[in-house]
Design brief:
single chain; 212 residues; mainly alpha; 2 strands
Amino acid sequence: MSESIAGIPIPDSALAREATELVREVAEPLLFDHSRRVFLFGSLRGREQGLRFDPELLYVGAMFHDLGLTGRFRRTDQRFEIDGADEARRFLESHGVTGEQAERVWTAIALHTTPEIPLHMAPEVALVTRGVELDVLGIGYRAVSDEQRAAVVAAHPRPDFKNRILAAFTEGIKDRPGTTFGNVKADVLAHFAPGFVRGDFVEVIKDSDWPE
């Protein structure tokens, strides 16, 4: 019998079970619990908005969205979001999920730190972002009931989560500061990485090779 948290069934297919075990293996409990909460909160927001979505695709998007912060999947030459997106697509394709469905999950992960745009895309794309925004930023906190929120946190606790997730962000991106240009993670390094210099869009334009 599949597990249910706050009225949301956890997908119990072979694909979903393998996704769960992969993330449990490579990620600290902090990121594992966060990723499960992203799925649960995203699903609750989807129900509240009356969206039709594929729970399995949403689950993989949520579970893989922070894989780029882990030692196994972290690279230094691209945004951490793309690390997770690339691995999710490889994982799905290895299970026969290809084409538009795999690209939908890739997009959901790649854009989950890009404000507003994902919310105008496919439900699975929007709901990964909704889940992240609720769990990390508190956006939509009152859109789920106190009882639902308590059930999610009881299953996947968040002790000192604000400080610990900021530390995980810093550790996962400090070796690739240039990849934060133009996205919200530059704020993390500005606070926690000594010597970080934020890229400046205006200066990039002014210093380009164009004469005028």
